[in-house]
Write a structure and sequence with these properties.
Elements lengths: L12 H11 L2 E3 L17 H5 L2 H10 L4 H5 L3 H14 L6 H12 L9 H9 L3 H12 L1 E5 L7 H8 L8 E2 L2 E2 L1 H5 L1 H10 L10 H18 L4 E5 L10 H17 L3 E5 L1 E2 L12 E2 L5 H9 L5 E5 L5 H18 L13
Parallel strand pairs: 1-2, 2-3, 4-5, 5-6, 6-9
Antiparallel strand pairs: 7-8
Helix pairs in contact: 3-5, 12-13, 14-15
């Protein structure tokens, strides 16, 4: 008996799944990409690919050059060193190096070419807007979510001009300076007209909420986000926990925005490597359960960097979702439900 063509079998299922994955447009929920309106903030080209911090960290495993010598070079010179060390002198077998070769291949370039100048010439000929469209089409990505910091002077300048942002790019409001660097951040807010002080008084918390409200209006973000260290706890008496409980979560709830917590980041373990010097560590998953239980009307996106946390986080997500749904209709969100 012949099998009807519209029925799946064990032999045809893998091909169907593969085809579906390849053909379905996706949304990239966390990137450091920017629309054309942000100018030089948006990194692109072979030199930016090669100087991504994953590749820089790998480069220093092989090279004898000092970090001081490396950072004294311009970006093209740094890219040339990385290219020679990781792609010519050594086999590009890591995930990061294979990613660069995949990009070159998908763009129709020869990944076997050893001359970096050939790739540099290609990107010099591209118009950024056209290149963005080409990359999104090749990747079958319909929207990307940026990482936006209102405390970055260059980015703040763009936002205050009220640009018409490419609709394929969605904003995210990062609140790391508020939560993680308050002693350095409150004087900046003072300079912008917010009546805050280092002590978290009622006025300070209210003015911080006003700051968040105004930047939600400016950016129209799809969520708020922060990177947190492995020792993050909630509730506790720290500035970050008090800011989360008294400012961030109330504002998120009022605007129907999820709060994204990336837990387990250890910043600048090797300061001389800059972004490449970050590390990670296992965290306490019960902190996620507690914060969701205390704020059942809020929605959360949670990622933990340490592999050891992944199974416990999956179980916490399942249990917390059930609890939140029964308590107040909230949940840990599936990313697909975030897109506008």
């Amino acid at each position: 008996m012949e099998t009807p063509s519209n029925l799946l079998t064990l032999s045809t299922l893998p091909a169907v799944v593969e085809r579906t994955l390849q053909e379905t447009p996706t949304v990239d929920m966390h990137t450091h990409l920017y629309s054309e309106q942000f100018g030089d903030i948006g990194l692109w080209g072979i030199d930016d690919l090669l100087t991504y911090h994953y590749l820089i960290a790998e480069f220093f495993r092989y090279s004898s050059i000092s970090t001081q010598e490396f950072w004294a070079l311009d970006k093209v010179q740094q890219a040339d060193l990385v290219w020679n060390e990781l792609f010519i002198e050594n086999s590009p077998v890591s995930e990061a190096t294979r990613g660069v070769l995949t990009v070159l291949q998908k763009l129709g370039l020869d990944p076997n070419c050893t001359q970096l100048g050939t790739y540099l010439d290609y990107f010099r000929e591209q118009k950024k807007g056209d290149y963005i469209s080409k990359v999104l089409k090749l990747a079958n990505v319909r929207q990307v979510v940026m990482t936006n910091d209102p405390f970055d002077p260059a980015e703040r300048k763009v936002w205050t001009r009220k640009p018409s942002i490419d609709p394929r790019f969605k904003a995210v409001l990062r609140v790391d300076p508020l939560l993680m660097k308050w002693p350095e951040t409150f004087p900046i807010l003072n300079g912008w007209g917010y009546e805050v002080e280092e002590e978290l008084t009622r006025r300070t918390l209210g003015e911080t909420r006003r700051f968040l409200e105004e930047w939600i209006e400016i950016m129209d973000p799809i969520y708020l986000a922060v990177s947190l260290p492995p020792d993050f706890q909630f509730p506790e008496a720290s500035v970050r926990a008090r800011m989360i409980g008294n400012c961030v979560l109330p504002v998120c709830r009022e605007h129907g925005l999820p709060f994204s917590m990336m837990i387990g980041v250890r910043k600048l373990v090797h300061p001389e490597l800059r972004l490449a010097g970050d590390s990670l560590g296992p965290a306490d998953v019960s902190v996620v359960e507690r914060i969701c239980a205390l704020f059942p009307e809020n929605r959360f996106l949670v990622s933990m960097l340490a592999r050891e946390n992944q199974h416990a986080l999956c179980v916490a997500a399942r249990n917390t979702e059930i609890f939140c749904r029964s308590a107040a209709g909230g949940s840990i969100m599936c990313p697909a439900s975030l897109t506008k």
